[in-house]
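Any chance you could type out some protein's one-letter sequence along with its backbone structure tokens so I can compare the two?
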Amino acid sequence: MKRLFRIGAAITLASAWALGAVQAQAQTYPDKPVRLLVPWPAGGAADAVGRAVAQALTTELGKTVFVENVPGAGGNIGTQQFIRSAPDGHSLLLATSSTNAANPHLYKKIGFDPIKDFVPVAAVAVIPSVLVVPTASKFATPADLVAAAKANPGKLTYGSGGVGASAHLAGELFKSLTKTDITHVPYKGSGPALTDVMGGQLDFMFDTGAFPHVKGGKVRALAVAADKRSPLLPDVPTFGELGLGGMVMNAWYGVAAPAGTPAAVVTRVNAAINQSLKTGELAKRLQDIGGEVRGGSAAEFSAFWSAEVSRYAGLVKLTGAARD
């Protein structure tokens, strides 16, 4: 009996020590600069969201939060690197709908488990896709694009940030709904693709980062792939208004930590993000690039994330997007 008592006491002490260690870690966190890994190149919507989040967390956490862009393979390369990070909260990931929900259904091997390798921290924003063309384009409406595509199968081109990117799935959904043959040109990020739209090398693209460029006159917007018009582009109709109601596509962004990150640290970062969305500049910066602000608990983001992994399975099947 005494031996059992000693074992029980030892377990209790060990548990208390572990709990105390986690609490102490949360109280001192962060004790060094924090990396926010963005698995996409600079210049696109993901990069813009990541930098806005990093600046907000720098203010709220009291330590520098810096962005590290690690692009490639539709976000897979950077994400593969991220899951090997120490689970102490000093490495965070800008999770996206492309990498963390679509890619598991697009690639045969992505190098990570879309659920088990991550701890969802907080949802940040959802940004709808916008169909944009060069400013000098002869196309004035989506119907013009459809007519040209049907008259010249395979001749029109649209760009994306890579296989699995929201722009790719939006383009494939557009082709599926309109029954057209249009050539997909993947890039290593939406920024380079949008640059080629501006230059006239591509006929069009769907982009979540195009809002500032439309406002700046660098591209023209023909339609918004959302249920309602964007406050930033009030004169641009939705596809539903134009008779293509199924053409709804957006990209979501959130912050994640590596699997095994202490709950107290996750709670701290979640609180910092939500606080900034309510009182800081983060909400305004997201809205300025067309974002619908989210936030909420880590549990809510986790449930949303899991549901999105399942939803994208159906979307990928519908579009017939190729797996690599």
Remarks:
- The mean pLDDT is 90.
- The two ends are 61 Å apart (CA to CA).
- The longest helix spans residues 2-28.
